[in-house]
Amino acid sequence: MIEIKDKKDCCGCWACSNICPKQCIQMEEDREGFKYPKVDATLCIDCGLCEKVCPVLHADIADKPRQQVGFLSQHKDDGIRRESTSGGVFSAIAACVIRQGGVVFGAGYRKGTFVVEHQAVDRVENLGVFRNSKYVQSNVGDCYRQALGYLKKDRLVLFSGTPCQIEGFCAFLRGKIYKNLVLVDLVCRGIPSPRVLNSYITAQQQLIGGEFTNILFRDKYYSYQYSSFSIYNRIEKKNYHKGIDSNAYLRAFFNNLSDRPSCYNCRFKKRYRKSDLTLWDCFPIEKFTRELDGKGTTRVLVQSKKGEDLIRKASADLRVVEIEADKLVEGVREMFHSVPMNPLRDQFYSDLNEMHPVQFFQKWFPLTWKVRLNAFVRITCYRLGIYDLAKRYFMLFYKRKDERILASQIRRS
Ligand SMILES: Cc1cc2nc3c(=O)[nH]c(=O)nc-3n(C[C@H](O)[C@H](O)[C@H](O)COP(=O)(O)OP(=O)(O)OC[C@H]3O[C@@H](n4cnc5c(N)ncnc54)[C@H](O)[C@@H]3O)c2cc1C
Ligand code: SF4
Ligand code: SF4
Ligand code: SF4
Prior knowledge:
By secondary structure, the chain is an alpha+beta fold.
């Protein structure tokens, strides 16, 4: 039976819990708020299936080259693209699957909450629940089993998620190929814990007040290049929008403090995947083409013929520019390399459990005058229409400065 000795060896994909014939594996939260399998030994029949399907235990890390095609793409509907993280390609391919009678699995908020979980959608008008990246680990629940049920009934299924979730699903299917299955994964930097998000929401509720109606981790409120963490409120004037420079949640994420331990040694970072399509951002659009604007573009790496057919079918809703695959992946760090664990991570999580949420975020991410100045300069550049030009400089400046602020803050504490 599955037993996690080192937390780095479990990405939380839920394959073991979905395959267990006795359903005796519960996913339980640890002190950081990440879920890990816990076997009820009194029910276990020692069939060994849970170990067989674990994509970390049997990681196929070889990056075996094969023919690939690359695209840059944007949804033609500007409203859908505005709600999406990058170019809104996921919505176009998901809608295309549904129009063929299919069902789509992805990560969205559980209705009326900010709990992110995998769920199934089979109506185009409900696809909005999947739009925009949620920088928090999604609960897969029994979605692998649900999806298998549809596959067996010959229904077209699109399953989307992080690379480890897609490999977990493939392992759960135990190598069986389904013609009616399309897999879509992302380039994935890492995934924070739901406990950090809950704590952040509690802090913001105390500071802002009102009733939160939506939370977007990558809102295009200012622009695609200067995306913001946005909290929408029933009282409109309380809406909150802050960029990577000054939003505490994003600062934790991009300082590599809040990710799951497995993300610092991710076994799924590679170019040639088990998915049919791999999606990710394209900020420097001008480097590739003048045919697309800078308001959000998705890079699409086609991993299979099935993936290529789907993207071509969906292209009635898309503007598409074909790009050489080698050029598309060139310099994309998050596709190949895990982020380094921040040496202060243990202290971060221990403070998270011990401190009041407001004090916790104020301690770790103080709004010093330097942070405020950085945010002010960025917003001013955005208003002057020169943000895109200035962005490269900001990235360097911000990273070094935030690291220094964090280090000095912790030294003082
Ligand atoms: C946790 C995470 C980390 C990422 N890291 C990078 C990165 O480092 N570099 C980069 O270029 N791009 C990254 N991306 C991908 C990028 O943010 C966009 O998802 C991608 O460009 C597709 O955008 P879109 O506009 O086509 O679709 P969107 O509508 O924005 O994407 C929705 C898709 O993302 C899935 N999704 C959203 N949240 C989650 C979640 N928590 N878990 C699993 N699936 C989820 C949905 O199921 C759906 O398939 C990341 C995405 C996520 C979720
Ligand atoms: S060995 Fe079999 S029965 Fe026991 S926990 Fe694993 S899958 Fe379940
Ligand atoms: S990586 Fe997935 S299959 Fe392996 S132990 Fe963790 S949840 Fe189970
Ligand atoms: S970085 Fe790797 S382990 Fe972490 S969520 Fe992404 S794919 Fe999974």
